[in-house]
């Protein structure tokens, strides 16, 4: 096929779409089901209507193929585990009794049964449920969901393309099930899994599917020869099936690397590649293998992870280069649009000109369709769109919002000394022990406490004008007083104020820093029914006035025990925002770090002796390729040290991380030079404690003994057992006792019971240590 005819065949598509609905209808329906206010039929009806709305919006915008199967009540990897029958033994009875309740039990656990482990989806803030596999795993096919959702879209007169997590990525994301040897390799189950995928593909083909998309983002990571051979074998077998739909293997989040020639020669019908973050690398690699003759190439030229408008002219140039490298070139976003909000046009509080710089999922869909039209018909067919796009790009580049000379001057003056504490840890630790006087195995929480109904009502009343600022602040003071009183009575050693004034751990700070934009409706799924509104980092960052000092010092005035000052660290401020793409991330991180340093110093000056700078995103933002990691970790750890580097030795600096593969960054955790780190460990059975010990981590650590992403209350014995396991790796004089994460999403009854059990467990183990 000639380049001209290839261009004529260009079509627009997406890999996935936001699930929640414009008003987060899915969240409300699922949580209503959990609380018994919504029955299963009503939940399914809400879900079906959301799917129909999404598909119709895509089709009306001009998208040729709509994705199906990407919708989920909780998580698409969990859906894949159901599809292949990988149900943990402890959940089988619940699934057999009631499939929907069993599904949610795997996700959230019950009082009697622990959930699946949860961790980050590659380098995003989306969390997936980790499959549990072992040598005795028996896979069975259940394609009900995939076939049904395909049929729903087909019945609307649309062209659906089912989307599945590919078999290689599924196995590479899995972990050994409890009781299985830790060195068990789930990839050894590939030959057992492929027949199930073959059956699912056959079921979809029988239902009328022409194409099926198999997502393999794990192949953009560094892969061993054995893993690449497994990928080649998998797609040789699936591609060699006699009666199957056409197969589109999709990669995203980076360059495909050594996996590209493996997939290029496999008997599949198309590849989808990321041409945003990895445009040059994937283009060169594609040319090096001689292109994809006879195959379809879906080019992800619109960034599916950030919210800035696309440079249409640059994307068209990339697409034009690709035309001669495949039989057919189609246009898409770089990944699922799950990672961006739904619709920028819903924002009313952002200046109209600035709003034109932004593209959420619906706007990105329009960009994709425009690019497909331009590729097919030529630039003259989209002349007006190109002119408007050039004007929007120029408006942003020339805006005073993006550059503050004072910030840039201060940032350029940072020295190595600014990123170092005045004394080494050994001397600081001695000063802190004397100053704080804490017991062995000190207890604390991570920061937030449950957001009560009274607090939510007060916020709604403030927005509606039913109460004034003074009335709202009185509610905040009351909440802080209740939290402090509870912690004192429970016996916690280092307290927190509970963060009742904060809407979100990133947004709260972003709204008080220059250079950030906040949205009203920019919701993005983090996990399950947890949605966040990532702020938009649009310009240079500074801190006009204190952000946390007032409420922290008020809380401290209510107790003689130390109250932690609570801040979100610079890397997490970037990772959980939509970052600017017009300067290196390290430069932006340094700006944020200096703003936070000012806050840390004022907290200390106000008498705060313990300050926690949370960095849960440090691992999340780690580049997927090892070669790219040293540069990232250098600026990321420096930014943290700049934030905390100005305090006195006796001021104890904490940090916190959760739900990630910490073993990959233990050296970076060490390089932060925090005095205490708290980490998620309950679901992963103290794995991180062992990893810290193997590294020789020299400072204090609090691996969590209470899984806060489950409604179940851990018993005193359970928490004590985890604590004893932690003591096998970390000496008692350096071990803290705390939950996995903040308690904002939990209810007060379970929080009270869990923290009372946590404190009791610490006392039990202290007594054991005293008697040993």
Structure notes:
The protein is an alpha/beta fold and 772 residues long. The chain contains 29 helices and 20 strands. The strands form 6 sheets. It has a 7-stranded parallel sheet. Strands 16-17-18-19-20 form a 5-stranded parallel sheet. Helix 2 (25-34) runs antiparallel to helix 3. The chain is globular.
Distance linking N and C termini: 79 Å
Main β-sheet, in a few words?
7 strands, parallel
Number of helices: 29
Number of strands: 20
The gross shape turns out to be globular
Mean pLDDT: 95
Give the helix level as a range of percent.
40-55%
Radius of gyration: 26 Å
In short:
Helices cover 44% and strands 13% of the residues.
Layout of secondary structure:
Layout: H1 3-8, H2 25-34, H3 40-61, E1 65-68, H4 76-83, H5 89-97, H6 99-108, E2 118-120, E3 127-129, E4 132-133, H7 144-155, E5 159-165, H8 167-173, E6 175-176, H9 190-207, E7 211-215, H10 225-239, E8 246-250, H11 259-264, E9 270-274, H12 279-288, E10 292-302, H13 312-322, E11 326-333, H14 352-355, H15 361-377, H16 383-397, H17 405-412, H18 425-436, H19 453-464, H20 469-490, H21 507-510, E12 514-517, E13 524-527, E14 530-532, E15 536-542, H22 549-556, E16 564-568, H23 570-575, H24 585-605, E17 610-614, H25 629-644, E18 652-657, H26 666-672, E19 676-679, H27 687-695, E20 700-703, H28 716-727, H29 748-771
Parallel strand pairs: 1-5, 4-6, 5-7, 7-8, 8-9, 9-10, 10-11, 16-17, 17-18, 18-19, 19-20
Antiparallel strand pairs: 2-3, 12-15, 13-14
Helix pairs in contact: 2-3, 5-6, 7-9, 9-10, 13-15, 17-24, 19-20, 24-25, 25-26, 28-29
